[in-house]
Amino acid sequence: MSENIANLSVCLAKAVRMLESIELLDMNGHISCRLPGDESKFLINARAASRASIRARDIVVCNADGKPEPGYPEPPSEVHIHAEIYRRRNDVGSIIHNHPHWQTVLGIADIPFKPVFSIGSFVENAVFYERSSLVNTREMGEELATLLDDQRAIQIRHHGAVVVGHTVEEAFVTSVFMEENAKKQYQAHLLNPDHRVLEGANLERTRESNWSPSIVRKVWNYHEEKSRLTGCLNGIEGEFVDR
User: Fold this and answer.
1) Do strands 94-98 and 30-34 pair parallel, antiparallel, or not at all (unpaired)?
2) Are 177 and 220 in contact (CB under 8 A)?
3) With contact defined as beta carbons under 8 Å apart, do 17 and 227 qualify?
4) H or E stretch including 98?
5) CB-count exposure of residue 150 (10 Å: 0-12, 13-18, 19+)
6) What are the residue boundaries of the Class II aldolase/adducin N-terminal domain, all occurrences included (predicted)?
7) What is the maximum alpha-carbon separation in the chain?
8) Of 17, 40, 104, 191, which residue is the least packed, with the fewest Cβ within 10 Å?
9) CA distance 115 to 100
């Protein structure tokens, strides 16, 4: 179990730093993943830890209600997002809550999300959660998780997004390309509100050919290597504290 926690803590810390480096996280936002072998628990970045310099020792193990296990620091105040989605979705292994610029702008403008970009073609017309404050109560977490249902993402109007995946890597890549699709849709909408979208057989073929475990791994490896070369991941390994 300690080895699982150590490896996942490094992976989560990497994901947080990489998302911060591409401006999909800032001083806020959080990523979690289930703990294999004890799926009533999950790991999440600590509330107080800097997203730019987070280390493996800054990852919190929480119980099913989002309470930290003894010896761990405080989780984010919006930990209820994660606890309630995991409670309802056995298929979800990782969750990201962030504040992506382009997706949030489309939501403010009330422009429906459409698939316009090949690797972002999995995007659907997103469901919106309309309570824009911090999702920092169990009641709000329950509402959001119920509205998410079986989809892979939900937007919090005027606030941000929540993305789910089977793994940390899949949630990371989904988050990256949802934002890239939103950016391209926003810019195309400025040029022509009646811009083209992917649809029909072309959409299905594009989705099929642009999303697979090998592509998820390729995208993750690209961002990981780029982050290593820039020094973004310095100091993550070897920092885990066995509690």
Assistant:
1) antiparallel
2) no
3) yes
4) strand 94-98
5) exposed
6) 10-186
7) 56
8) 191
9) 17
Q: To 10 degrees, the CA torsion angle through 58, 216, 20, 106?
A: -130
The residues with which 129 forms a beta bridge, in sequence order, are 156
Distances from the Cα of 17 to the Cα of 8, 14, 71, angstroms: 14, 5, 23
84-110 CB burial, b ≥16 within 10 A, e <16: bbbeebeebbbbbbbbbebbbebbeee
62: β partners: 42, 68
Q: Average pLDDT of the chain?
A: 95
Give the three-state DSSP class for 47. Answer: coil
What is the rounded distance in angstroms from the CA atom of residue 243 to the CA atom of residue 240?
9
Token pair recorded at residue 111: 């422009």
Report d(CA 73, CA 61) in Å as an integer.
9
pLDDT digits 0-9 by tens, 66-109:
999 999 999 999 999 999 999 999 999 999 999 999 999 999 99
Task: Summarize pLDDT for 39-53 with one digit per residue, the tens.
Answer: 899 999 999 999 999
Six-digit token pair at 67? Answer: 């309470």
55 neighbors 13 (Cβ within 8 angstroms): yes
Take residue 63 and report the two structure tokens written for it. 């119980």
Contacts 24+ apart (CB under 8 A), 136-140: 136/77, 136/78, 136/80, 137/80, 138/65, 138/80, 138/83, 138/84, 140/80
Record the tokens describing residue 142, joined without a space.
Answer: 């329950």
Q: Which domains does the chain have, with CATH numbers?
A: 2-230 (3.40.225.10)
